[in-house]
Design brief:
The complex is a heterodimer of chains A (about 400) and B (about 170). Chain A is mainly alpha-helical and about 400 residues long. Chain A has two domains: about 230 residues, no CATH class; about 100 residues, Rhodanese-like domain (Oxidized Rhodanese, domain 1). In chain A, about 55% of the residues lie in helices and about 5% in strands. In chain A, the strands form two sheets. A five-stranded parallel sheet of chain A has the order 3-7-6-4-5. The longest helix of chain A has 30 residues. The radius of gyration of chain A is 26 Å and the shape is globular. Chain A starts with 13 loop residues before the first helix and ends in a 29-residue tail after the last helix. Helix content of chain B is about 70%, strand content about 0%. Chain B is globular. Classes of the chains: A mainly alpha (about 400), B mainly alpha (about 170).
Chain lengths: ~400, ~170
């Protein structure tokens, strides 16, 4: 579903990706400004009960995006967990609670959060500029002491890994996100109504004019949330894989498999169906060892079909096993099975003759690179790996894109 | 477009609009929105230009420094967009004005100092929490990360707990 994963930005999509980045940022900044988030007094009003805009906008945005991802995922267009594993950081429970408390204190002292301070700066506010400078100083100062053992211990305490609200409920993967999204939508609407009541009481007490929010707009938005939450629930009834499984499984060459595994590992699920001992000895990086007799245990028919399922068999690849045929997404077989992979990716290529043309050199460089990446053995000269770097998700533990 | 600095979008509609921007970011780019991460890159780049020795002495800073040029980073471009979007939004709404926002009887210099100090606290805290209100609360919250939700409630708790002490700044 992700048209332009940002860590592929070093590839040919780079310029387009950066333009999209600017456009998305433009939308972010423009909406924040129009919501009033470029003004410290309006933001601070949240913490004195006079103006609940922060809560309404934040929860409204979260519910909207949550319902959107749940519906897309329910329709099989997105693998929610795979996307979330890349886009969010893992949960470090205590650092997030303690750091969150400190960030909230900084918020009311400065009048902005890091994102809104940039909007305030762009709209000419001196206090916004000071907050932006402060955030830079704070980030650099803290990063410079992060290696101190005591601080590192605090910062990396209680690492729970990637854990989501639907994991806490122990619901099946197809049901959990929709149930959580419905519950969060209901909670948000409750919070909106409660916040509005508090705001009215406080403003009356402070003799401030009543807020001119249109109740019909609020009702319209609430109804929209309810409708989309229902759509999210309804996607659970979409039969998985009925149409998709009719498709013929495609065949992949070892080259195509190497490209997928190196460039876009998040888009594939590689399952090695050879006997366990053979798979344990050597396998395609990132592949799962599940002998074909045990495939039924993966309940592939009920799995989310967003990732391409690639089956790696022995020499005589015998077509798609019945247990995998019901997989809702695309299914591919590695042509020639694992032996073809071993001779392609695990064997360094013959060096081309001295008079070889540029095409032969290029293909040698590519194959040598793949063999080096797969075996960890460098053959000279080390060619550039076909993996994107710089913008890559090297951030430790993920990072919502914010602290990374 | 009429320019009324006191007129804002309906907060619920603004929330839906913000959510759609976030959804676009998640589904097109595969990442959420962010803000503070770009600050670190900019800060380290500035420090590295002024005092490279300082950067090299700290493993954390050196890592960010070796990460590449600050503009070789998607968040930097996203933040450039935020600045442009904020500017255009402020210009078209009549809110583009050089001023210092504060409570009616709070001195200007003190307000600027508070903004700086609050910013420093937030910058440090956003490292501990792996993201600020944009990257963690909004993006992580929408993707139902447990840590993001704990963070979000904690931010509100921290804000309410501190608000009384700085009430003169705003009221």
């Amino acid at each position: 579903m992700n048209l332009l994963p940002f860590w592929a930005l070093s590839g040919e999509a780079r310029e387009l990706g950066l333009v999209v980045g600017v456009l998305i940022g433009f939308g972010f900044g423009f909406v924040l400004e129009r919501a009033g988030f470029g003004r410290a007094n309006k933001l601070a009003g949240q913490f004195y009960g006079t103006d609940m805009t922060v809560l309404k906008v934040m929860f409204g945005a979260i519910v909207t995006a949550m319902l959107g991802t749940v519906v897309l995922s329910g329709m099989g267009l997105m693998d929610l967990r795979a996307v979330a594993d890349y886009a969010t950081s893992s949960t470090f429970l205590w650092p997030m609670i303690i750091g969150g408390f400190a960030l909230g204190a900084g918020f009311i002292v400065s009048g902005y959060c890091p994102g809104t301070s940039m909007v305030a700066m762009a709209s000419g506010k001196w206090d916004g500029l000071m907050a932006v400078i402060g955030v830079i100083i704070g980030q650099v100062a803290w990063t410079s002491v992060e290696h101190v053992p005591a601080i590192a211990r605090l910062q990396n305490a209680s690492d729970l890994g990637h854990v989501y609200l639907y994991d806490l409920l122990h619901l099946p993967s197809r049901v959990g996100p929709a149930v959580v999204a419905l519950a969060v939508s209901a909670m948000a609407i409750g919070a909106f109504i409660g916040a509005q009541k508090i705001q009215e009481i406080v403003r009356r007490k402070d003799a401030l004019p009543a807020d001119t929010g249109s109740p019909s707009t609020a009702r319209l938005v609430f109804a929209g949330f309810a409708a989309f939450a229902m759509v999210g629930m309804a996607t659970m009834a979409i039969p998985t894989g009925s149409a998709a499984s009719q498709k013929q499984a495609g065949a992949l060459t070892p080259m195509q498999l190497a490209r997928r595994v190196l460039d876009e590992p998040w888009k594939v699920r590689v399952i090695d169906v050879r006997p366990l001992a053979e798979c344990a000895a050597a396998r395609v990086p990132g592949s799962e060892c599940v002998p074909s007799a045990d495939l039924g245990r993966l309940s592939l028919t009920d799995a989310n079909g967003a990732r391409e399922l690639i089956l790696v068999g022995g020499a005589g690849a015998a077509g798609v096993p019945a247990a995998a045929a019901g997989y809702p997404g695309r299914i591919s077989l590695l042509a020639g099975g694992f032996p073809a992979w071993a001779s392609f990716a695990l064997t360094p290529p013959e060096a081309p003759a001295s008079g070889a043309g540029p095409e032969a050199l290029e293909s040698y460089r590519l194959r040598a690179g793949i063999a080096a990446a797969m075996t960890g053995v460098k053959s000279a000269p080390p060619p550039p790996l076909p993996v994107g770097d710089s913008g890559a998700p090297k951030k430790k533990g993920g990072g919502g894109g914010c602290g990374g | 477009m009429e320019r009324d600095p006191d007129k804002f979008w309906n907060p619920y509609l603004a929330g839906v609009a913000l959510g759609l921007v976030l959804l676009a970011s998640i589904s097109v780019m595969g990442v959420g929105l962010g803000a503070s991460g770009a600050s670190l890159r900019m800060g380290v780049a500035t420090l590295g230009a002024l005092a490279p020795g300082l950067v090299e002495r700290s493993p954390g800073l050196a890592k960010a420094w070796n990460h590449g040029h600050p503009f070789d980073f998607w968040l930097s471009f996203e933040v450039l967009g935020v600045l442009l979007g904020g500017f255009v939004g402020a210009y078209t709404s009549g809110r583009l004005k050089a001023e210092t926002l504060r409570g009616p009887s709070f001195p200007k210099g003190k307000r600027l100092l508070f903004a700086l100090v609050g910013g420093i606290i937030m910058g440090a805290a956003a490292r501990v929490t792996r993201g600020c209100t944009s990257g963690q609360a909004l993006s992580g919250g929408a993707l139902m990360s447990v840590g993001a939700w704990a963070f979000m409630f904690s931010v509100f708790a921290g804000g309410y707990a501190t608000a009384w002490f700085v009430r003169k700044e705003w009221r």
